[in-house]
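Continuing the series of single-chain predictions for the mutant panel. This is the parent chain; the variants come on the following pages.
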Amino acid sequence: MEFDLDRVYLTLDGVTIDDDMLGASYGDGDGVIEFDETIELTLALHNLGHVDAYDVTAGITTGSSFVGLCVSEVSFGDILSGETVASDEPFVFHVTRDVPNGDVIAFTVEISEEPGLLGLDFEVLAPMYHVGIVDIDDTGGGNGNGIPDPGETVEITLMVSNVGGTDSPDLEAVLGTASDFFIPDGTPHPLGVLAVGQSVTPGAFTVEVSAACPPIYTHNLRLVLSGPNHYCAPVPFIFSVGEIFADDMEEGTAFWTHYAGQGSWLDEWHLETHRNHTPGGESSWKCGGAGSVPYTTLLYSILQTIEFDLPAGCHLRFWHWIDAETSVTYPDYCYDGGLMEITLEGGWSWLPLTPEGGYPYLIRDGATPGPFAAETPVWSGQQGWTEVIVDLSAYEGPIMLRWAFGSDGADVREGWYIDDVRICMTPPAAVEPGSDDAQVIIRPLLFPACPNPVTMNSAAGCGASDVVLRFALPEPAEGKLMLFDTSGRLIRVLASGTFEPGQHQITWNGRNAAGRQVNAGGYFYRLSVNGASQTQRLIVVR
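Parent structure:
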């Protein structure tokens, strides 16, 4: 920049941040601007010109709604040519307690001499919270299947994490809701101070699901975190009732298949107890060797769900752990990794799925490439148990999902683990309690079996040796309810004909079409109505 030195010209020569203001209630003295702090901001101006400046003053303004200005006008007195002078007193402002972590506050400083306006930007640090469900226990107030249903009272274990830039206040947590169908217990749970990166799991929170709740329904619960000086941070999280598809990998392989992809590739998916995410559980699916043994080279290993009916407006949630080969030379590239796909055509063609936030790596061809083309987005690298969310709102109807892992012909690592898979309805955004905009299925619907698993000859709650299968229709329709084994062989037609609108209940006594008791194992029951079908799973034990 060119300017005439034969006049006054002031430049910013120093900025001092003091967050330990004498007599103020807020601030920790670390010189970093944080939430709920009162800041003294002292500026030093240098006169670059050859002319002295007299009675210099300055004012500060900001358009940020997270800042309250306390002292916005200061004086520098005289600033002689070549001198640097700090203001007689600092600007003073207060940062609100609800400022988002990482928010950049822009100030404009207007001085009485040239250049007239100066800009100052400061990043503010604040706590930021993530709340996730670790476990759902309905053994005391429900059927014990770990899935909230209408009329049940469940205990949910939450993990609360501070993923922000500074420590939290001394917190306590109270569970609230955005839905009239959820009735949480308002007992406070003390959390204490959450350091940056710290996670805590307080005692279980109790939620009653109204008997009037739709059988398949999703909305938000809200964990309200409060602290001293009226600090309050409500954190919403998803809570789902009923089951579309869910598996914690603790009951065998009946609802999954695995195989090698087309070509001369290998498959190493298997149920493994070396790592597990489910609280109180033991197993997960692993692609790799037994225990901690690494996977082998040249894998194209595919883990696939059974076909099930996907309602409109859903998302997938699952947990995974991965240790796969990345590139040392090329950041964000890898040689081995995993991805997800979906089919609506019974497996004839597959479409790629992209997780929330995208895949972290791209495939790079090695000397002996794996099954995925170069630049294919995948999961790879080293990552502990992490929840993944995948938007499925673009799909509806009978679907299958699959997790595919590929490795090239070089180095190998421990592998890829998948656990706690669940399909949920996506909750409405910014919906107030009592709203009619909640996610409710109003089309033909096949409900989870009760009980499930069913122990033949000693089933509790639904009549000895019986299991209750329910479905609902919005209008009269021709339909069939059929039972199949895991190979797809028809075991029995449980109901058929014209059904009236409303809920229907069928009791099955565990016998096939010939009247003989079926063997223990996995089964599917399918509702076919007006050319569309929905499938649920059922486990029989003895």
